[in-house]
Amino acid sequence: MTFLPSYVNGAWWTPADDPDAAIVRDASTGEEIVRVSTKGLDLAGAVAFARREGQKSIGALTFPQRAMVLKNLAIALNERREELYALSERSGSTRRDSLSDVDGGIGVLFTFSSKARRELPAGKVVLDGPIEPLSKDGSFLGRHVYTRLPGVAVQINAFNFPMWGALEKFAPAFLAGLPTIVKPATPTAYIAEAWVRMVVETGLLPEGSLQLVSGSVPGLFDLLDLGDTVGFTGSAATAERLRAQAKPGVRFTSETDSINASILGPDALPGTPEFDAYVKQLLVEMTTKAGQKCTAIRRAIVPAGTTDAVAQALRDKISERVVIGDPRTAGVTMGPVVSIAQRDEVLRQVRALRDAGGRFVVGSDEAPEGVPAEGAFLQPMLLSFADATTPAVNDIEAFGPVASIVEYTDVAEAAAIVGRGGGSLVTSVATHDPDVATELLTRMGAMNGRVLFLDRDDARTSTGHGAPVPHLVHGGPGRAGGGEELGGIRSVLHYMQRTAIQGSPRMLTALTGVWHPGAETDSAGTHPFRKPLSELRIGDAVESAEREVTLDDIEVFATFTGDTFYAHMDEESAAANPFFPGRVAHGYLLVSWAAGLFVDPAPGPVLANSGLENLRFLTPVSPGDRIRVALTAKQITPRETDEYGEVRWDAVIRNQDDEIVAQYDVLTLVAKTWAPAPAAVPA
Fold this sequence. Notes:
Elements: E1 6-8, E2 11-13, E3 22-25, E4 32-36, H1 43-59, H2 63-78, H3 81-89, H4 95-119, E5 126-133, E6 141-148, E7 153-156, H5 164-176, E8 180-183, H6 189-202, E9 210-212, H7 220-223, E10 229-234, H8 236-245, E11 251-256, E12 261-264, H9 273-287, E13 299-303, H10 307-321, H11 340-355, E14 359-362, E15 381-384, E16 402-408, H12 411-419, E17 424-430, H13 434-444, E18 448-454, E19 473-475, E20 484-486, H14 489-493, E21 496-503, H15 505-512, E22 541-543, E23 547-548, H16 551-561, H17 566-569, H18 571-576, H19 587-598, E24 606-617, E25 626-638, E26 644-655, E27 660-671
Parallel strand pairs: 7-8, 7-10, 8-9, 10-11, 12-13, 12-17, 13-16, 15-16, 17-18
Antiparallel strand pairs: 1-2, 3-4, 5-6, 6-21, 14-15, 19-20, 22-25, 23-25, 24-27, 25-26, 26-27
Helix pairs in contact: 2-4, 2-5, 3-4, 4-5, 9-10, 12-13
């Protein structure tokens, strides 16, 4: 017999023997693939290894460096997709199904790498929100920061997405600086083992940053404490049982089964593009992964009198597009569910739905024709309920190619039906009517983690009802688990601690790596625009001379730009404005002048101005006033893959009375090194 290895304590481990090991079989043929057991595994040692070696190795890296590791892992996995596709076929997944799991997991790594390099700082601390002045003289400040947790992230995943489901948790945890222990579901653990082996073979993983436990984890929760996290995907019942085991201080988040809905809008009648898009989406959600998706549509909510039309259109689509069988067979578009046990569980839930009043309007619970008897095959099933308030239709999830259809009389009732599900990962709405969409979002938004609006304008480009994207929240309230996964950089912060810090500008600058007003500056010596990134330091500054603003300057700028707004050109009208003493200079004139006051124009390490952010005009400038500017290096972000980095400068324009006229951030791209051009030799 062959046992599936685990990867713990920096090495591969396999049990010596276990007659009680779980047997994993091919979903189509029933052939034994592997046996799964953790008998004899040192789980406590794995947790200690993560805290000791993983914390040290990941903690030594900055956010951009961690992001580059993710990118390179994605490249390596992308080169071996065919191996993963072949393994996934043994679980019942077609090639198209694998696009969600294999390609989706790789896409998560690429996306988080890209977003981290753009949106996270160069250091190891994330700033949250603006500075809060806590003293009149600016000597005492406060703000919020995120720092990394000291423990380990335990990721307990479901069988349906052994790659994407794990990587969507691993990627943000890794960026946050938290080592991960992956515990895959047994039926598809061999796929998880394959991708983990691939990334281990790259040699890119920092020591202890990723471990794999193939099998059960008895006593795991006794090993976890403050600073550790648990991310669980699975049934709501299991989530509650595990949550109760977690000690205070252990962060437990869950993404659980939910009775997701899809609403056919009252305007989306047969013959409309929205109706066609709705039926197509319903087909996709029922047949992709053989309906084994926590985001799949379980309730089709349609206007009164349209059940027959929807059912007929769905039957036509199934007849045209669905071929059930072994995914390795040419032409097959829907494979079996993951195991015989799962097939039997789906059929048990279907019987419960029928006992509660459901009747088949599409398909049946009989085995599909022409498939191996040893396989876990089911056909798509749609059950109609006369009463949308039937408890079973809003509570029972048959985790396979099964959905129910109910009718509503008005939009308010449709939203109420969604709410009867107790909280969902996603609800979709097919409508072209903005008023319908607005009312539905208002009434049911709080019941969902995500709401997709489908119409003729986005039907071809939509990622679909059941396809979470790394940029947006994946999770949902109530029955859906109450947690959040994904959501861009927001999901990285789930694995960090938000802390309020207070101190002097000097101290907060040191703690955050970002210059704070009131901290020391250095405007002596070399102009900072002459310094490459390797020499530039936080606090390097330029203090400019003054420049007087004249009425002629204002009028020339107005005529040149075409901005003849009355506040600049009409003294009487400007004086009547409560914000101005009379005619005033254009704000953009002052910003332009400020650039002229602080710039060093000769060729040098500053390669380009890449933007301007957070601009605020605070004090009007009248003819005869004088302005000056202070420019201070605020934040330095090297780019791991480029020969330049980004420098954020704090810019403050003041008048002759030392009042702040304007403040903003200037962004420049600066070379990491710079060798001055050799002096010209006289002829």
